[in-house]
Amino acid sequence: MKTDREITALAAAAAARLEGFTVARVGEGMSETSVILAHPDGRALDIYRVYDTRAAIRGIFPPTRMEIRSWPEITVAIARGPRALAAEISRRLLPGYTSTCQQISRHNAADHADEQAREAAARLLAGLLPGAASSHTGPDGTTIVRWNGTGGQYGSIRLVGDGQDAYLDLRGIPLAAAARVAGVLSIS
């Protein structure tokens, strides 16, 4: 692992001036010489050298399915030192970055609640269909119940959101079964 001693020292000294932030890792961010500052609330900053004379600071977001429209990043002249670096981070980067992190946290909590409800709905449906099994939630936020019946019958039920919406794909079912499904759908 290659290290940039000047950036490492600058980042460590700036972290001491940023409430709650500490040096967490070196060499794992945007650059092989990045220094990652972490906060107990989950926020993290990646500090690395650009253009030989500047430090770039980028906010790191937690994993999410939320669309992130912009990644906050600033640059500060290395010669200005750790006090200026910390002040610029506090003034120019943290307000927008922290706000987006809070939005992501709310989104992830709602997404997790939806996933739990969707998985409960999938277990219910899988229990009602002989030969059915629920597959794990996919990266697109869906849960699929796969069904293998007798005589070439099969299908799937894709649950989205909180599991209250479902997409049915039934194959090879007898007309009488299709009529019962249609009858149920006609009164719902």
Protein model, in words:
The chain is an alpha+beta fold. It has two domains: 5-109, no CATH class; 115-187. 38% of the residues lie in helices and 28% in strands. The chain contains three helices and nine strands. The strands form two sheets. It has a five-stranded antiparallel beta sheet, with helices on one face. A four-stranded antiparallel beta sheet has the order 6-7-8-9, with helices on one face. Strand 6 (132-134) and strand 7 form a beta hairpin. The model has no long low-confidence stretch (mean pLDDT 90).
From the structure above, extract its key features:
188 residues; five-stranded antiparallel sheet; four-stranded antiparallel sheet
Quick structural overview:
With 188 residues, the protein is α+β, with helices and mostly antiparallel strands. The protein has 2 domains: 5-109, no CATH class; 115-187. 38% of the residues lie in helices and 28% in strands.
